[in-house]
Input
Amino acid sequence: MKIRAKFTKKDELRYISHLDLMRLFQRAFRRANIPVKYSEGYNPHPQFSLATALALGVSSDGEYMDVELGSYIEPEDFKQKLNTILPNGIKILKAVSTDDKESIVSLIRWATYIIGFKTKEKLTTEEITSEIDSFLNKEEIILTKEKKKGNKITVKQNNIRERIKDLFLLSNEKDIIVLKTTLMTGSQGNLKPEEMIGLLEEHTKIAMEEDSLKLHRLELFIEKDGTISLPI
Output
């Protein structure tokens, strides 16, 4: 049996790493008596996987995991048992039984974020909307990355325009703008929200005050045969 669950990662728990989050769930499974299936061999480990890793400090209402179970348990019992154990900030929102043979890690393709920051210069809502439209109308948006190995620096450039599904303004008050965007994520292509904001600054009049960026992941999406949908 496999359960796919949606959970939050908020408050102080947004500062724990992906590895520490894995360990947190391992302890929670044991304490809640969840019959997680273990791998075979000399070093058996619980068979569960989390979707794409979240950067430190980024909160989320839309994280997912797959858990292989050794015996049957009602998804609602899975949810309730874990929620009595999990710390504040981590909460199971939904759990379902699934026959999906593919892992959640391989299926995730898109992530929706809420992005807020203070602007260096005041812009009207019309100006911001116009700048965003101009940005999205570009056929090429080049992301440059440098990778250092020893004394050698390799520069890689990619056109990431197709990795931005949408971007629009939610609010513009007191020099603080809030954006909503859906970006490609996962093994077949990835664009971090911080990278997208950097490119937005590079190509438009929108300029962010240093250290004012706040990120929240709202949802993750899977894509199968060209169809985009929620994981559960």
